[in-house]
Write a structure and sequence with these properties.
There is one protein chain. The strands form three sheets. A seven-stranded mixed β-sheet has the order 2-1-3-4-11-10-9, sandwiched between helices. A two-stranded antiparallel ribbon has the order 5-8. Strands 6-7 form a two-stranded antiparallel ribbon. Helix 3 (73-85) packs across helix 4 (95-103). The chain has helices at 16-19, 22-29, 73-85, 95-103, 177-186, 194-203, 210-222, and strands spanning 2-6, 36-40, 56-59, 90-93, 107-110, 116-124, 127-135, 137-141, 147-150, 159-162, 166-169. The two termini are 17 Å apart. The protein contains seven helices and eleven strands. 41% of the residues are buried. A hairpin with a 2-residue loop joins strand 6 and strand 7 (127-135). The protein is α/β, with parallel strands linked by helices. Its EC number is 3.4.-.-. It is an enzyme of class 3 (hydrolase). This is Type 1 glutamine amidotransferase. InterPro entries: ChyE-like, Class_I_gatase-like, GATASE.
Amino acid sequence: MRIGILQTGLAPEALAPQSGDYPDMFARLLAGQGFTFRTYRVVEMEFPADVHDCDGWLITGSRHGVYEDHPFIPPLEDFIRKAHDSAVPMVGICFGHQIVAQALGGKVERFAGGWAVGPTEYDFGGQTLRLNAWHRDQVVQAPEGATVLACNDFCQNAALAYGDRIFTVQAHPEFKSEFVDGLMKTRGKGLVPDEVMAEAGARLDQAIDDQTIARRIAEFFKAPRLQTA
């Protein structure tokens, strides 16, 4: 199964030599699941010609806000709607989670409660999973018809499903704790409050349930669709 990675941001140059870029992280996360990958740098206006060019799509995280004025955002929203209407499976992570919600009628904004950073627990329908987080923006209003799959007190729309067509997660299952530590040291200074980074740093040795989400993503991509175009 060929998965197209829609890359909406770039990993910090200081961290990329060790961690790779975001598509590399997803390839590692989903290794052994029978997928091949092709990356499209949509952040640089490199888009697929058609929603059927791959068997499924994965939208990465980004330092950009989905509500900001960037050239790639309107065509990406159009692509999301076309994929949804064509029943081509799509997964969105962090920025990807947010832009899917925005494209389908939800609302995303800079959250007044501040940042979520590092290992964070989420309630996935009675199952507690710990995943690395790195976000200030949130989906504050889910689109009509979306189902909330995960939440916590800080983030009420932490994972969403759009029927059998789209699955999105606010957290970063592709981020290892070493990468979060690197983000704190590169992008976090002067952006994330010191107390938030200190608390996150104290939790970085906690185990994360990244492989549980990896399996869910793989199962979602491989599941038969109720409708096909």
